[in-house]
Design goal:
This protein has four helices and five strands, in the order ααβββαβαβ. The chain is an alpha+beta fold. It has a single domain (about 20-120), classed as HIT-like (HIT family, subunit A). The protein has a five-stranded antiparallel sheet with strand order 1-2-3-5-4, covered by helices on one side. The structure holds adenosine monophosphate (AMP).
Length: about 130
């Protein structure tokens, strides 16, 4: 039954799915410059920063992207946003301002299939994004 549902959804069975790079960071299998952690989220500096301050905050639960979060993830998503705000404040961005970005899917520019919120600041950011 499980295989049939996964096949219909065009997904590989979980058993043969490899860990995303962010899961490896969460598991401390690869290094990252971690700025905040609690039981359910981890925040670390982006390896290829697009602004003077560029931090990613991710849920430890491996939700591939926002569009695949379920109703059971509602509190976790609220917590992610709440802690993104706290991390931005901790990094000194409150006065100058900052932007939170979630890229979802191909047209959204998502490159890592593990839900993450970008925290960007330290310079004026253009709008609309290019
Ligand atoms: P997105 O394009 O929204 O999926 O964002 C993925 C982000 O992850 C990009 O900004 C990358 O620079 C960043 N990234 C990829 N690998 C790492 C890594 N090992 N450590 C920190 N950031 C990473």
């Amino acid at each position: 039954m499980r295989r049939t549902l996964e096949a219909r959804a065009g997904r590989r069975p979980k058993a043969i799915m490899s860990k995303s790079i962010f899961e490896k960071i969460i598991a401390r299998e690869i290094p990252a410059d971690i700025v905040f952690e609690d039981d359910s989220v981890l925040a670390f500096r982006d390896v290829n920063p697009k602004a003077p301050t560029h931090v990613l905050i991710v849920p430890k639960k491996p939700i591939p992207r926002l569009s695949e979060a379920g109703p059971e993830d509602e509190a976790l998503l609220g917590h992610l946003l709440f802690q993104a705000r706290a991390v931005a404040a901790k990094l000194g961005l409150n006065k100058s301002g900052y932007r939170l970005v979630i890229n979802n899917g191909r047209d959204g520019g998502e490159t890592v299939p593990h839900l993450h919120c970008h925290i960007l600041g330290g310079r004026g950011l253009g709008w609309p994004p290019g």
